[in-house]
Design brief:
It contains 12 helices and 20 strands. The protein is of the alpha/beta class. Strands 9-7-5-2-10-1-11-15-19-20 form a 10-stranded mixed sheet, sandwiched between helices.
Length: 428
C-alpha cells in the first residue's frame, strides 16, 4: 500500500504540480482533496506549459485515474474550459472524474467574493475573487449546491431556491444586481448535462483502489501558511491544505497515509496580503521574481519574494508530519554570491522565537538570518546529488535540518526530467 500526499510547506506556489506530475508516472490514482480554481499548478512537458487549476496533476499519465474529490469546490465553467484546453493539446481526459459530493462554485459566489473584498477597502485579504470563500461558507452553512445535485432536477430546484434567496439578500446589501432563479437553474442543468459522465460516487473508486493496494497520490493546493486554522488568518484560504485534512477530503481512513512529502521552494514566495517576514523589497527580491518567473499561475499577479523562512518550514513540518521533502527551484539561486535563511524571529520585546506566532504578532517580528555562500555555477543539467556544487549541498542539507525530514527530490528546472532523485544523502 502506498498513499502519499504532496503538501505545500510555505505560502503556496512551491511547485507541487511538477512533483505530483513526476510521481504520477507510477501512480494509479491522483486525488485532488481540497480547494478550487483560485490557485494553479504549472507542469512543463517538453516545450508545452500547462497551467492546471482544478484538474489533478496526474492527468498527463494516460494510465492514471484523476479524481476531484469531496473536499474541493468546483466552478463547472472553469473546469469545462480547462478540460477543453487539455483536450485541444492532445491530453486524454477520459479518466478524469468529479465527486458527486464536491460543492459547486456558483456565479453568485464569485460576485459576492468581489463585493466582499472591495468592501474591506485597505483591509482586503488578497482573495482572487473566484468565489472560493463564499462557496465554502455556503457549504458550512448547509445551503451549498453539490455536483451531484446538478443531475437531480427536482432536488436541485429546492436547493437552489434556498441558496439563491440568501445570496440575493447579500448581493442587495452590497448594492449589487440580483440573479434570476430561472437563468441560474438553466445554467446548472446545462453544467450537469455536460459533466454527467464525470460525476461519480467517489467512495467506490477510492475504496477499491485502496483495498487493491494501488498507488494513490493526494494533491492539495496552496501551502501550510494559508491553512484556514493554522495559517496567517485571516489571510488564508477557506479550506485546509494540510495532511490531516487530505484523508478527509479524499475519503480515506485516518491510518491510510504512508508518506507525507512537503514541497519546499529554495526561497520564499507569496501571493496576496498578510505578513511575510522574509519579503525582500530590493534588488534581491526582484532578481528572485524575474529569474524564477514568479507570477501567479491563476491570476498572473507578481509574487512577493524573499529568503527562505525556516520558521515557516518548521511549522509546516510539525503540522503535517513530513516524512520527506522535495526542494524546487534550486537553479534560481545559481548566480547568487550568497543567500540567507531565516531561522528565528525576534519579537518587539527582544525575545527570539523559533515557532510560528499568531498573525498580529507575526506582523511585528524581525527575521533572524544565517548567511550561506552561493555556488555560482549552473545546476540545470545536474541529475545526481554527487554532482551538485558543495555549497549547494550545504544549503540543501540546512533546509532538511530545519524541516527535520530527508530530501528525496531536488528540482533544478521546470521540465519534467529536471529533477534529482535522492535515496540517502547522509554522510555525503
Amino acid at each position: 500500500m502506498a498513499v502519499k500526499t504532496i503538501i505545500g510547506a510555505q505560502w503556496g506556489d512551491e511547485g507541487k504540480g511538477r512533483v505530483v506530475d513526476y510521481l504520477a508516472q507510477q501512480a494509479d490514482i491522483v486525488i485532488r482533496f481540497q480547494g478550487g480554481d483560485n490557485a494553479g499548478h504549472t507542469v512543463v512537458i517538453g516545450k508545452a506549459i500547462f497551467k492546471l487549476h482544478l484538474v489533478p496533476s496526474g492527468i498527463f499519465n494516460p494510465k492514471t485515474t484523476n479524481l476531484i474529490n469531496t473536499g474541493c469546490v468546483v466552478n463547472p465553467e472553469s473546469l469545462l474550459q480547462e478540460i477543453a484546453n487539455l483536450e485541444e493539446a492532445g491530453i486524454n481526459t477520459t479518466k478524469l472524474f468529479i465527486s458527486d459530493r464536491a460543492h459547486v462554485v456558483m456565479p453568485y459566489h464569485r460576485i459576492l467574493d468581489g463585493l466582499q473584498e472591495t468592501s474591506r477597502h485597505d483591509k482586503a485579504i488578497g482573495t482572487t475573487k473566484r468565489g472560493i470563500g463564499p462557496a465554502y461558507a455556503d457549504k458550512a452553512a448547509r445551503r451549498g449546491i453539490r455536483m451531484g445535485d446538478l443531475l437531480k432536477p427536482v432536488w436541485l430546484k429546492e436547493r437552489l431556491s434556498v441558496a439563491l434567496e440568501h445570496a440575493n439578500r447579500e448581493i442587495t446589501h452590497f448594492d449589487g444586481n440580483q440573479i434570476s432563479f430561472d437563468a441560474m437553474y438553466e445554467q446548472c442543468q446545462d453544467w450537469g448535462q455536460k459533466l454527467s459522465n464525470r460525476i461519480i460516487d467517489p467512495t467506490i473508486i477510492v475504496r477499491t483502489a485502496y483495498k487493491a493496494n494501488k498507488t494513490i497520490l493526494l494533491e492539495g493546493q496552496l501551502g501550510a501558511m494559508r491553512d484556514l486554522d493554522w495559517g496567517i488568518y485571516p489571510y488564508v484560504t477557506s479550506s485546509n491544505p494540510t495532511a490531516t485534512y487530505a484523508l478527509s477530503g479524499a475519503g480515506l481512513p485516518h491510518n491510510a497515509l504512508s508518506d507525507v512529502i512537503g514541497v519546499v521552494k529554495a526561497y520564499s514566495t507569496a501571493v496576496g496580503a498578510g505578513p511575510f517576514p522574509t519579503e525582500l523589497a530590493d534588488s534581491n527580491g526582484e532578481y528572485l521574481r524575474e529569474t524564477g518567473n514568479e507570477y501567479g499561475a491563476t491570476t498572473g499577479r507578481p509574487r512577493r519574494c524573499g529568503w527562505l523562512d525556516g520558521v515557516a518550514i518548521r511549522h509546516a513540518s510539525w503540522l503535517n508530519g513530513f516524512t520527506a521533502i522535495a526542494i524546487t527551484k534550486l537553479d534560481v539561486l545559481d548566480d547568487l554570491e550568497s543567500m540567507q535563511i531565516c531561522t528565528h524571529y525576534r519579537l518587539p520585546n527582544g525575545e527570539l522565537v523559533g515557532h510560528m506566532p499568531d498573525t498580529p504578532i507575526l506582523e511585528t517580528v524581525v527575521p533572524i538570518y544565517e548567511t550561506w555562500r552561493g555556488w555560482q555555477q549552473p545546476t540545470t543539467q545536474i541529475r545526481e546529488w554527487a554532482n551538485l556544487p558543495q555549497n549547494a549541498k550545504h544549503y540543501l542539507k540546512r533546509i532538511s535540518e530545519l524541516a527535520q525530514a530527508p530530501i528525496i527530490f531536488v528540482s533544478v528546472g521546470a521540465e519534467r526530467d529536471s529533477i534529482i532523485t535522492i535515496k540517502n544523502i547522509k554522510g555525503k
